[in-house]
Design a protein that fits this description.
Helix content: under 10%
Radius of gyration: 14 Å
Shape: globular
Oligomer: single chain
Structural class: mainly beta
Distance between the termini: 40 Å
Number of helices: 1
């Protein structure tokens, strides 16, 4: 049974940092495409950071240079280090995963491509 459990969210002032974690089970992280998404109130869910099976990363322009995605295959855990946080980063943050050939050949950040999701962790940034 695939399971993704996010943690590490909270409230922080602008300019602060948080580190999100996503504990994975039921599938092989090392062979999966894993992405952090976020959804702010009244907005669509957007992919913000992606890591491939071979550790290649990409970021949405809105977080590039401030956020870092990483993973620990041995611990089956995905991370998102968030620095220089802004009020506009306030959102529910989700991790998502998908394996198989798609993960090796595509590994994009489109919501519709992902089968497995966590329950989310709330990040609130105050000015």
């Amino acid at each position: 049974q695939v399971q993704l459990v996010e943690s590490g969210g909270g409230s922080v002032q602008a300019g602060g940092s948080l580190r999100l974690s996503c504990a994975a089970s039921g599938f092989t992280v090392s062979r999966s495409c894993m992405v952090w998404f976020r959804q702010a109130p009244g907005k669509e869910r957007e992919g913000i950071a992606r890591i491939t099976s071979d550790y290649s990363t990409s970021y949405a322009d809105s977080v590039k240079g401030r956020f870092t995605i990483s993973k620990d295959n041995a611990k089956a855990t995905l991370y998102l280090q968030m620095n220089s946080l802004k009020p506009e980063d306030t959102a529910m943050y989700y991790c998502a995963a998908r394996g198989g050939t798609w993960a090796l050949q595509k590994c994009g950040m489109q919501e519709a491509d992902f089968l497995y999701w966590g329950q989310g962790t709330q990040v609130t940034v105050s000015s």
